[in-house]
Each structure stands twice: as C-alpha cells, then as structure tokens.
Amino acid sequence: MKYIVVLGDGMADEDIKELGNKTPLEYADTPMMDELAAMSEIGMAHTIPEGMKPGSDTANLAVLGYNPKKYYTGRSPLEALSIGVDMKSDDIAIRANIVTLSDDDLPYEEKTIIDHSSSEISTEDAGILLEAVKKGLENDIYKYYLGTSYRHLLIWAKGEVVELTPPHDILGRVIGEYLPEDKMLKEMMKKSYDILNNHPLNIERAKKGLNKANSLWFWGAGTKPALDSFEEKTGLKGAMISAVDLLKGIAVGAGMTNIIVDGADGTLHTNYEGKAMAAVKAVRDDGFDFVYIHVEAPDEMGHQGSYERKIQSIQYLDQRIIKIVKEELDKAGVDYRMLIMPDHPTPVCVRTHTSDPVPYMLYDSTNKLDKSWHYTEKDAKKSGTYIEEGFKTIDRLLAR
Q: The pTM is what?
C-alpha cells in the first residue's frame, strides 16, 4: 500500500456572499474531488492545538503526525533546515520577508503594509535586493540567507526569541504598533527601506506595475528544531514535494527526501503537473511509500483577498494534481490511500490564517465506500467525523 497526502495550503474558507453563501471549495468546479468524495471518508480535523497560533508551520507538522505542542520551536528554524543553515544551539532564526510598504513621505512607523509577498516576487529579483541588504546591514551577529520568492532568513547569533507579528496578519494597516520592540531588529527594518525603496530594480518593478519590494519584515523567531525520523515513526520511506522552504525544512528535519520540481514556485501558476508526476514516479518507480504534495497557491490567494483566484487554485489542484495522481496510479495498478485536506483555513474575508477545523477526505483505492458526500466544509461537518487532535489524522491515513 502507498500513501499520498495532497495538501492545499489554506484551502478551507468561510461562506462568501458573492458566491451565494458558498465557500471557494464548495463553489469551485472540482469533478475529480466530487468523484472521490462519493467513495471516501470525509470529516473535520483540528490541526491547530489550543493556545497555539494558526500557521502553516504548526498545521503541517500536525498533518505529518508531529504533535506541535511537542515538536514546534518556531517557523524560521524549520526554514533554516531547508536552506542548509547549520544553526548553533544559541542561534535564533527569524523569517525575513521582503514586503511592500507604502511609498510615501511619511515616517517609517506611519507607513502602511500593502503586500506581504511584493507581487509574488521572483527568487531571482529577491536575491538582487537581498544582496543590497546584506552589504548594508550584515555583520558577525546578524547573517542573512536567501530563501524562495519573498521568504528569506535572518540568523541572530546568541539572540533571543522575541514576539514578532506576521506581515500577512496586518495587511492594509499602519505598521507602527506592530514593529519589533527589539531596537536592532526595528532599526534594520527601517534601514532596509532606505536601501530598497529606490533601488534600480524596484524602480523598474514600479514601471512594470509591480509592487516595490521595499522593506524587510521580521517574524517567526525560533530555536534549533529537533524532529524524530518520519521513517522510524511510521516505518515508511517518505518524500516531500513543495516549493516552500518551510515544508522542505520539515522534510529535512524528519529525514524525508525533498523532490525538487522544475517550475514549482509556490504561486498560482506553479508546475502542478510536474508535482503530480513527480509524486507518481516516487511511489510507482522509486521505492517511496509516502509522498506529501504541498500546494501553496490557495493560501496565497486567501492572503490576497481574491476568492476568484482562490477558486482557480482549487480547480487547478483538482484537475492538475489529484486527477493525474489518481489516473496514473490506477493505470499502474498501484494500491494507495490518498488524504486530501488543507492545513488551516485562510479565509478571503480576513486575509490571514484561522484556527478553525478543516475538512479532510480519505480515499482508498482498494476499499471504495458508497457515500453521497461532496468534499466541502459543510458536508465534512455533517459527516459527524471529527479528529480533535489533528496530528492523529495520519493514523487514519495509515489505517492504524
């Protein structure tokens, strides 16, 4: 038996008036998921433990079977694993987003945060800007590392875990009250604006109608992580397929193999087919027992506040990943169980993560059920199946 997880990051949502009080998942045209739902177990899972902030870090740990209460030490340290940073025990890792702040004459504290992803900036452009930041700000205590797209890393030698606000939580707000209390972190953010706002690359981006990537934003501080081996926990040889450093870092920490797919970039226009076929090859040809396919696009569209693009991302997930995986594994005669779910909701109305339970669907190619469900938040709630501790969802997938 092979095991597949298809994780639509932030896919769950709330009813939207413009969609006839349906969610994007409910409104989207998803013939493959509709077909599977009629033969699957569906229900709700609570992936965010009480008292913890809703994030892709805690939630994806939970879906992979790691209790966040036990294993979570911060988001950025997991990303450091992906980037290949060898953290010391007294290092602090901090996410360094390159964001868009309002381009005006107001003092830094009075500027407004416009875009947490700087128009989904390419890694190539971000690398140019981060080099400028490094020349101006880096020293023996603070080291910067290039990540993917807008997501980068600061390592603070002998630092401390400080309270920092995720930029996607405060879109459209004046930033003053959300800046770090630590004087040096705050000063580096202010200086980064001076370095970046009129950088030649940002002048060109503005001419093209793209948001300027004109400031660093620090968040997600944490200490060096220590995850147990996924293979030792489950007995399964596992692989991760994701464009996001966070997920790649979790895989590194868990001893899973990261499968890199050309054109997979974490955007709405990522290489869906490439991800699907990489997963098929992993379990069909390469000896992997478990593959985790992570798709960032629904979450990004939720942060952007676009239900139209969120619907599109769900439809892409249905036709360009789930359909391909099912058809190819059926054709190859592979027995498999496939879990489809979000990690957390990212409702369009709030443009950030919430802690609400999420709908899951579990399909078994060898034991097709006879149900009348659709894979939606409403039907998942009606099913009466509820997994209170989300990190135990994997036990259902593995039929344990």
A: 0.86
